[in-house]
Amino acid sequence: MRRFFLNSLATLRLTVGHLSRPQRSFWLAGVLAISLSLISCTANKPAAKSTPAADAALKAQVLQIIRENPQVVVDSVQAYQQQQQQQVQQARQTFLQQMIVNPASVIGDSPTTGAADRKVVLVEFSDFQCPFCSKAHKTVKQFMDKHKDKVTLTYKHLPLTQLHPEALPAAKAAWAAQQQGKFWEYHDALFNQSDKLGEPLYGTIAKNLKLDEARFNKDRQSAAAEAAIQKDVQMAESLGISGTPFFTLNGETLAGAIELPELEKALERVVGASPTPAQTEQPAEPQTETP
Fold first, then answer.
1. CA gap 125, 102 in Å, rounded
2. Other CB atoms within 10 A of residue 111 CB
3. CA distances (Å), 103 to each of 47, 151, 155, 236, in order?
């Protein structure tokens, strides 16, 4: 296998210059994939089957092809990025369409509050330790107090664990409170005391809300809590959401620590618009937090 690959590699070095740019990108991508696979496989075999010198020679030849064709690498990366962007755009378009025609499929098991008819749904992707989420929480609360008869709010967990060590524990605690029908009360308490997140606070809030504390502690440490939060995270990733807070209102999207007038205008567009998803224009630098 190694000898066949090295012969192919030598042939490629002689012919790659005569290929078109798309063909070179295709060939280089294949070479890199096979190289990494081969190196990985040989690393797990006995020393008699592979030597450090042989592996070094293989790596050197691959690197030489890359050095001789730097633009091919750039083209490959750009093509990959474009493909990823197209996938995200398609996923987001599908999501926004589902928000209109089948909101239940988007909401799933996530907690909801507000209007029961779910004709207008505000989806919030948020992190309990994110300062911009805390700021947006006040705005969303004002908005829902005013429009709870026509807007359904649903919460999706997106803990930025690389930045916030208490984001995931807080999310699990909120999920555990949800199992006893007290998600929104627990949610508000977390945001109102986001500077005190930690074990003492989680237990105190549970006690103040008169939760079954034994069940609460068991639920927040369960695999079910982890799975539920991960499901929200995966949804966010599929939609290309990397920062918090992020909102969708039927076919509208809004990012950052939004102000009340922004939400009001979005609601006006949603209520007065035809049922087709359309993305709103975003501020140049929305107040979001990203890892």
1. 19
2. 19
3. 57, 12, 13, 16
